[in-house]
Amino acid sequence: MEEAERAVVARDQLQRLDVAKQKPKLEANIEKMMAHGLWPRDRRLSQFLASLQPVEADARLAVVHGDLHIRNVLVDEQGLRD
């Protein structure tokens, strides 16, 4: 962590672990994907979204790559594949 701090690695300004902040964005992005036919409507996905609850994040610092999100999912003309 000391090396990361010396290199001025930014802290998580996007609050990626803040479920209360991220869940509405996730729901909106999934709804857009479904509206465009890129993701089928699925009861399991709805159940998963409903189950998301805030978590207590560990206060220790760690360097992680946090760029995997729904907008980084690649699709072709047929949408997602099973």
Account of the protein in words:
The chain is an all-alpha fold. The protein has one domain (about 1-70). It contains three helices and no strands. It has helices at about 1-5, 20-35, 45-50. The radius of gyration is 16 Å and the shape is elongated. It starts with a helix and ends in a 31-residue tail after the last helix.
Quick structural overview:
The protein is mainly alpha-helical. The protein contains three helices and no strands.
Draw up the topology in text.
Layout lengths: L1 H5 L12 H17 L7 H9 L31
* Estimated share of beta-strand residues: under 5%
Q: Strand count, sense and closure of the main sheet?
A: none
| Uncertain segments | none
The run of helices and strands is HHH
Structural class of the secondary structure composition? mainly alpha
**Which bin fits the share of residues in helices?**
25-40%
Distance from N terminus to C terminus (CA atoms, Å) equals 39 Å
When the domains are counted, the total is: 1
SS element count, helices: 3
Looking at the structure, what is the overall shape? Answer: elongated
The count of DSSP E runs of length 2 or more, i.e. the number of strands, is: 0
What would you report as the Rg, rounded to the nearest angstrom? 16 Å
Key phrases:
3 helices, 82 residues, 0% strand, mainly alpha
